[in-house]
Design a protein that fits this description.
The chain is mostly beta strands and about 120 residues long. The protein is about 0% helix and about 65% strand. The chain has no helices and 8 strands. The strands form 2 sheets. A 4-stranded antiparallel β-sheet has the order 1-8-3-6, with no helix packed on it. The two termini are about 20 Å apart.
Length: about 120
């Protein structure tokens, strides 16, 4: 009989209100884990169209990739991104709002514990 080691998966949501126009880290893959970014919902809540920038830092490559650049979200509308983006330990998801206090975001993430990784 072959024994397989299970990899624990934790389902997470990471939410944020973007209260500044500074680049804001929304999620960092914890030590000892990998993750799958399943989807992102970004809502415009002020009644004014607002731009959003999404960047992902690949810690292994020491590189940051712009996934969305100043994408406009209409007044009282939302942007839904359905993804299956694999992330490694210490990778970072960052959002930047064009105007403060207008956008809220929630990321849906599956975290995978790597202790049994061989």
């Amino acid at each position: 009989m072959t024994s397989t080691l299970a990899r624990a998966v934790r389902l997470r949501n990471a939410g944020i209100s973007l209260t500044t126009t500074d680049q804001t880290t929304v999620y960092t893959v914890p030590a000892g884990h990998s993750a799958v970014l399943k989807n992102i919902i970004i809502a415009e809540t002020s009644g004014n169209a607002t731009g959003i920038t999404l960047e992902i830092t690949d810690s292994t490559a020491s590189a940051t990739y712009k996934m969305l650049g100043a994408k406009s979200i209409g007044a009282n509308d939302y942007l839904f991104l359905a993804l299956e983006l694999n992330l490694n330990e210490s990778d970072v998801i960052k959002l930047t709002a064009a105007t403060a206090n207008r956008l809220q975001a929630v990321l849906s993430i599956d975290e995978i514990f790597l202790a049994n990784n061989s």
